Amino acid sequence: MAGLIPESIIEDVRRAADIVEVISEVVVLKPAGRNLVGLCPFHNEKTPSFTVSPEKQIFHCFGCGQGGNVFAFTMQHQGISFPEAVRALAERYHISIPDTARDGASANGADQRARLQAANALALEFYRKALAHPVQGQPARDYLSRRGLSAALIQAFQLGFAPPGWDHLARFLKGRRVPDAVAEKAGLIAPRQSGSGFYDRFRGRIIFPIIDLSGKVAGFGGRVLDDSLPKYLNSPETPLYNKRRCLYGLYQARDHCRAKKAVYIVEGYLDLLALHQYGIANAVATLGTALTAEQVALLKRFVGSGDIVLVFDGDAAGQKAAERTRPIFEQLHSRFQPGSYQRESGVNTRVLELPGGHDPDTFLREKGAEAFTALAAKAKGMVAFLIDAALRQHGDTIEGRALAVGELVGPLQAVSDPVTRSLYVKLLAERVGVDEAAIARRLSRGGTHRPAPVSGEPRAGVPERLPAIERQLTAMMIQYPEVLPDIDKRNLTSYFKNLQLKAVAEAVLIHYRESGTADGVIERLADPQLQRLAAALAIREEQWTVSGCRQLIAQFVRARSRPSREMLDAIAQAEQAADDGRWQQLLLERQKAARQGERTRRKLLNR
Q1: What is the value of pTM for the model shown?
Q2: How far is CA 166 from the centre of its chain?
Q3: How confident is the model at residue 306, as a pLDDT?
Q4: Under 8 Å CB-to-CB from 552, ≥6 apart: which residues?
Q5: What pLDDT is attached to residue 601?
């Protein structure tokens, strides 16, 4: 993104943005010495471990390990990218990002997005005013009242109304000087099939604005007030709106999902609003598609290793959910495999089938929120659901069971972890009454599914145990930049053994050479885990002195020039075992290492 937002602008934003001011809108902070502490917004805790340093303009949670600067907090809390975080903070602190700083194609793209966002914002204004109109909006308000939606919920989700008529919005936008081409590109109007001019895409419908994670309108959904068809209508694909990447209600639900470490996924706007109306605020809705890999990745930002619960209607349409669930299962297990991403924060996906005839809205009206959460607590795992659905569809006959096994071959082949797959095979074998080996042979005939690694996935967590002296040296470099010229001259970081600490330390040096300071080094680290590591090292309270820094450097030099503990132990073991050949070989290796260590020591000291 460096080609789009210059480093100078990023630096201006970083200096202008007060991390305490930004975080205080989310976390109640209390003084604790030179720092501020509060309850972490990224995991549940009763004792504050979330620490903010006003002096260093960084945060770190000693409970979950999250940390970084104001950009990292904005990214993590809002679930947005680094460039989006920079732009959000720039807008907040009235710092302009000039178009002249962008490449031609990028500038055109950014300009187009800005024009589309402005058109959507005006359309939302029009729809909301139409809903509030004492005469024009009365039918829509009556409908929402019958659905049990409160005024507070309507306000929170910014619902609106597209009045009947062909071109009310088109004329409104023209009056606000929005070009027809922009309104059409935003999916708000469409060209007439005969003659010239445009007509409104949404007419006579309740309007549900789809808000992205930056708080801007990406698109709209609309529902008729009766049972005419099509019942629902969504915005077409636009540069702002992609139904595979958007989730209705995530903007409003994100903090609740993070707090509960769980999310309910329903299939309709009104089902989603019903859950929120009944206090179940960790809920989102898909937009006319099955759950996609992109949506799962988005939700992972907020639920972590928690639960994703798919909620399906208990009617004939809901029974078809199995057909949509199988590819979801394969996507989840392709992206979140045990041994990689799942080892740290795997996704636990379950399926909640409501009783026959119910959707979330009708179930909540009849049974209430407690009954819903009680039923959700018993939601089946995905494999158990798929097995039940397949047997239900094909019948509990020999032929039906064979067809069910055939349907489940694909999902089970998607599971690359052998232990997990073996447990699933055992469960399926028990349900259909065949030998596990028969199902295993059936899977092997189709070959083993080995999904390609997904770029951009988080790596393993920051190791709990880091080399003490390298950790201290890196912390010193961040906290006491006066020592950096000496570190740089001696090229000490080239002798680091821990790759993570080496990456952070070298980033500090590169930033120092370019700017003459260690401030702002965190955003130079592209890896979020390295950002968290740097923040953890920076926020610790340590009193550095010139003499203390020199002693630490000398200790590091000595450590790199002495034989390793492993070699000394190996020599002692060979001597005790009377293994003369091994003992002599190790002594020669120690002598060679000692000579190399002495050369290293002299090199480091003479620089």
Answers
A1: 0.63
A2: 40
A3: 84
A4: 469, 472, 473, 476
A5: 47
Average pLDDT, integer, range 424-433: 88
Residue that has been written with the tokens 């795997």 in this structure: 346
How far apart CA 144 and CA 142 sit, in angstroms, is 6
CA 343 from chain centre, in angstroms, equals 17
Percentage of residues in the chain with pLDDT exceeding 70?
Answer: 80
Q: Which two tokens stand for residue 246?
A: 């958007």
Average pLDDT over residues 77-82: 82
Domain ranges for the chain = 7-100, 113-240, 242-458, 468-606
Q: Which residues contact 228 (CB under 8 A, 6 or more apart)?
A: none
Task: State residue 437's pLDDT score.
Answer: 87
Structural contact between residues 506 and 470, judged by C-beta atoms closer than 8 angstroms? no
Confidence (pLDDT) at 315: 67
Angle at which helices 360-367 and 269-277 pack, to 10 degrees? 30
pLDDT digits (tens, 9 = 90+) for 407-422: 888 778 777 667 878 8
Q: Bigger pLDDT: 236 or 297? A: 236
- Pull the structure tokens for residue 20: 């305490």
d(CA 43, CA 77): 11
List C-alpha distances in Å: 270 to 250, 285, 360: 14, 9, 9
Peptide bond into 54 cis (omega under 30): no
What's the alpha-carbon Rg for the chain, to the nearest Å?
30
DSSP codes joined into one string, 293-344: HHHHHHHHHHHTTSEEEEEE-SSHHHHTHHHHHHHHHHHHHHHS-TTTHHHH
Rounded to whole angstroms, the Cα distance separating 463 from 459 reads: 11
Which residue has tokens 């930004």?
22
Return the pLDDT at 600.
53
- The CATH classification number of 113-240 equals 3.90.980.10
Query: Can you spell out the DSSP letters for 441-468?
Result: HHHHHT----PPPPTT---SPPPS---H
The torsion region of residue 194 among left (phi > 0), alpha (psi -120 to 50) and beta comes to beta
- Say how far apart CA 605 and CA 4 lie, in whole Å: 43
Q: Residue 446 above 70 pLDDT?
A: no
209 close to 248: Cβ distance less than 8 angstroms: no
**Under 8 Å CB-to-CB from 559, ≥6 apart: which residues?**
469
Is residue 469 classed exposed, middle or buried when 0-12, 13-18 and 19+ CB atoms within 10 A define those classes? Answer: middle
Angle formed at CA 14 by CA 12 and CA 18, multiple of 5 degrees: 120
More confidently predicted of 327 and 338: 327
CATH of domain 7-100: 3.90.580.10
pLDDT given at position 12: 78
Please name the fold of domain 242-458.
Dna Topoisomerase Vi A Subunit; Chain: A, domain 2 (3.40.1360)
Give, in degrees to the nearest 5, the angle at Cα 127 between 274 and 230. 65
H-run or E-run covering 431: helix 418-432
**Predicted local distance difference test score (pLDDT) of residue 171:** 96
107 pLDDT higher than 70: no
Residue 142 is encoded by which pair of tokens? 């009556």
